[in-house]
C-alpha cells in the first residue's frame, strides 16, 4: 500500500510549487491557435510541480476530464514517465480512491487516463466489499485526506450475472465464489422487487449505488462527507462507449 504523504508534505506541494503548476498547466492546455482547447497528446505538467486536486469537486472534475479523453481517444497519458516514478518513489498522495470490478476490460488508470501516484485502486469481483476492502477504501481519506471515492460498476458484469443466476435458481456457486453472491444478495432483493428489461444490468447499478451509500454512511467516512472534505460517488462504466456515467453522489463545485 505504501506510505501516504503527511499533511506537511501536501502543504509544500500545494503551496511552494503552486505557481509553477499554474504556469505549466496554462502552457500545456492551449493549442497553438490560442483557442484554449486541450491538444490531444499534450504532455502533462512536470510531476514535481503538478498540483494535486484537494477538494472532492476538483478531484471529480479531473477524473471525468480524463474519462472524456479516454472516450474521445485524446489520451495524455499523464504521470507515466521515469520522472514521475522518481517523484512518487518515497511517498504518495493520490487524489482519488477507486473501488471497481476485477474485469480485465475496466482498468481504472486507463479509464480515467491517470498514472503513477494518482489513484488508490481496489478491485474485487463485482466490486463487493468486506472489512478488509472497506479498510482499504478508508486508507486514503483517513490517512492523507484523499477527497474522493468512486465505486465503479460496469456493463455486462460477469460476477453480477453469475450471482443473479445463482440466487434466482437457488444453486450455490462453487468454492468461495458463493461469497460474492452472498455479498450481492441485498442488490438482488431490490432488483427482483420490480421488473427490469435487463435485470442483471439493473442489479449492477443498484449494487453500485448501495455500496456507495454504505461507504458514505460509514462511521469513519461519514464525518468527512458531512464536513465536505470527502465525496463518495457511484458510477457505471459502459464497455461499448468507454464512458463513465455518474449514478449518485457527484460533488458540487
Description:
The chain has 253 residues and is an alpha/beta fold. It has a single domain (63-248), classed as Carbonic anhydrase (Beta-carbonic Anhydrase, Chain A, 3-Layer(aba) Sandwich). It contains eleven helices and five strands. It has helices at residues 7-15, 18-28, 56-72, 82-88, 108-111, 131-144, 158-169, 177-183, 185-192, 199-216, 222-226, and strands spanning 96-101, 119-124, 148-154, 231-237, 244-248. The chain has a five-stranded mixed sheet, with helices on both faces. Strand 1 (96-101), helix 5 (108-111) and strand 2 (119-124) form a beta-alpha-beta unit. The radius of gyration is 19 Å and the shape is globular. The two termini are 30 Å apart.
Explain the layout of strands and helices.
Blueprint: H1 7-15, H2 18-28, H3 56-72, H4 82-88, E1 96-101, H5 108-111, E2 119-124, H6 131-144, E3 148-154, H7 158-169, H8 177-183, H9 185-192, H10 199-216, H11 222-226, E4 231-237, E5 244-248
Parallel strand pairs: 1-2, 1-3, 3-4
Antiparallel strand pairs: 4-5
Helix pairs in contact: 7-8, 9-10
**Beta strands, count:** 5
So what's the overall shape? globular
Question: How large a portion of the residues is in β-strands, by DSSP E?
Answer: 5-15%
Largest sheet, spatial ordering of strands:
2-1-3-4-5
**Radius of gyration over all CA atoms, rounded:** 19 Å
List low-confidence stretches.
6-42
Number of helices: 11
Topology order in helix (H) and strand (E) letters: HHHHEHEHEHHHHHEE
Key features of this structure:
253 residues; alpha/beta; Beta-carbonic Anhydrase, Chain A; 5-stranded mixed beta sheet; 11 helices; 44% helix; globular
